Every structure is written in C-alpha cells, then in structure tokens.
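re: ur question from yesterday

yeah so i grabbed the chain u mentioned. its 402 aa long if i counted rite. heres the sequnce exactly as i have it in my notes:
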Amino acid sequence: MAQTADTIRAAARETSDYVIDRRRWYHAHPEVAYKEHDTTAQICADLDALGIPYERPTATGVVATLRGGAPDAYLEDGTPRRRLMLRADIDALPVSEETGEPFCSLNEGRMHACGHDCHIAMLLGAARLLAHLTDELRGEVRLVFQPAEEGGNGSKTMIEAGVLEGVDGVYGTHIWSDVPAGKVSVEAGPRMAATDWWRIDVTGRSAHGAMPNQGADAVLAGAAIVESLQAIVSRNMSPFEPAVVTVGQFHGGTARNVMAGRAWMEGTVRTFHEEAHERIPKLMERMAGEVAAAFGCTARLTYEVAHSTVVNTPEASERAARAAREVLGADALVRYQGSMPGEDFSEYLRRRPGVFVFLGSGTADPSGKVWPQHSSHYDPDESVLVRGSMLAAQYAVDFLNE
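ran it thru and got these structure tokens back, copy pasting raw so excuse formatting
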C-alpha cells in the first residue's frame, strides 16, 4: 500500500495541472441533463488521448475500462478477479454564471454550479494515475461518466444500460463547499437525503373578487396549505430525524378581480430514514385535504419518489478512510454530518456496496463568503481536485487487491 501511495503522489504532481485544465474546459462548456452531447464528445476525446477504450451505452453516457495487468487479474474464463466502478456525473444546471472567471460558461443560462465539471476532471485524473499502476491492478476498473444527475435520474438510465453488470463495488466523489478545502469525509451510513417531488392541486369555485362569499377561494386555501405543511416536520417528526418539506412554487388565479377557482403548488421532500420517507406523503395528503376542506375546497396530492438515501456501507467507508490516510496524509479525514440535498448515486449503492466521498472545496471570495453548490457564484478551490483523483486511484488499487 505504501509503495502504491508513493507512486500516486509522484504522478500527482504532473496530474494536478492536467485535472485543472480539463476542469476549466468542461466548466466553460456546460450542458444540462440528457443534452450533454459536446461534453460526451470531449470525454471520449480525452479518453482517446489517454489510450483508454470506452463504449457509449446511452446517447450521453460513457463507460471506459481499465484492465489490470497483474498475473491474476483475470480468471480462466476471462472475467476479472474483481471489478470496481468509479463514477462521475457530467450535467450542468440552468444557472447564469456570475463568477467572473476567465473560463466561465460560454453557454448562456447554463453553469456547472454543482461541481460536476470537477467530477469529470477528477475521474480523468484518476484514470491517468491508474495508468501508472496497471501492473498492480488485480482486476478491472470501470469508469462511468453519467448524464442527468440533476433531477434526471441518470443513474437509473445507466443501470438499465448495464453499467453494474459484473461490478463488485462502487465509488463516487462529490466536491463539497461545506467541508474544509482538501479534507475528505467518508463516514458510513446515511450521507445524502432521499429525494421526492410533489404537487398539490387545489380546486375551489371562482367568483367575482368583490363578492367572495359566492365562491370558494383556492388561493386562500392554498396559502393555508403552504403554512400547514411546515408543521409536518416541526410537529410530526422527531427532532432527531432529519427531514425537509419545501414549497418551491405556488400559482393561482387568472385576474386581479377574480377570486381563484384553482391553485397549485410544487415542491420537494428530503429524508434520511425510511420511516420518515414513508410517513411524510401520508401526512401531506391528510394535511392538504383537511385544510382545503375547511375553506370549502378540495386538494389532490401527486407524489413522485425520485431516488433513495445515499448510504455508505461500513466496509467501503473504512477502506476509503485507510486509503485517504495512506495517500493524502493522517490529517486528511474530517467528520461531516451529511447533507439534505439528494444524489442519484444512491441507486448504485442500493444495488452494490460502496462509498460516496465528500471532498472539501470551500473557497472564500474577498468578503469571506464561501459560495455553496447551485449558486451562480460557485467557484471551488481547484487545487484540491488532484486529491480527489489520488484518493480514487488509491481506493481502486486497494479494492482490487483485497
């Protein structure tokens, strides 16, 4: 293990510039979910330059293969002794960039505001580092460049395309502004929340705005529903059980002198634990229906489960911790409580053991503000990126050599 770490550290010195250069290209050319055509073409070009074979199982997904060169890397029937999947998501957000960087987005209204440009570059960097270690790989590394993480369930698309076939473990990284720059968090258990989407349609009876007694006000009922939904977490859930119910949109009415007969709202629910995941939609349906009825209206809830909680398996988390101490240093690890945003890497972890790593990237602007993910000012510390590549490479060697 120590010899592998020394090789990775030596190769990382030249890889750092490569990773930053690649990150800047992808940052300047963001594309949203399932439209990552230029992104995918460039990933393929970068893999060609590295001499790594790949396939395109979906229109905007890429799967590359690093074959191990150790004598026992493959069984007699040609299957790898072990196979690890390393994953990077590749889509951007519909955000207009305001960082002012010279490599800022060239695509108006599109920005890598979540760090997926960094994830692409780090995975390419890990592949470059592993190319120095092929003789030590007792198996195979599958590199998955996944589209549509941002609300598009791209992981399910790639799973349907077969990326988990023959895979013994999975590994992913998210650059994260809430973790100190350069540090990593790899704790076992729930790390990111289950993500659900919902809509409530409120139906009343429209009337003249000057004669409201002749109708049933859907906007008023909807406003009461918005307020009542906040009591689900504050009064129905344990304070020790993380949960979030958010109303993101509220629409109703057609004219300023017409009392609305219809209104609707949409939002999201985030939970860490299955019991809360099951309870909240039932509470929402009851709350919306009874509050609407109090105003002479009706309410209908439409609820969609997007993906489950990101849960690191203990063995994989411990392996990642050992790898971090070995290749990044004894002080590389920090404890982080996890985060309520969701991540569709959870779908891989539901099917295979593995770990999802937070890599700290917090960079402050002159005012001292550290911009979070999804901000139009989001601008992570590029110097930490090679550390993500180093940890992924060390983890891959350790996993395949067990």
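noticed a couple things. The first helix runs from residue 2 to 28. also The chain has two domains: 2-188+313-401, 193-307.
anyway ttyl
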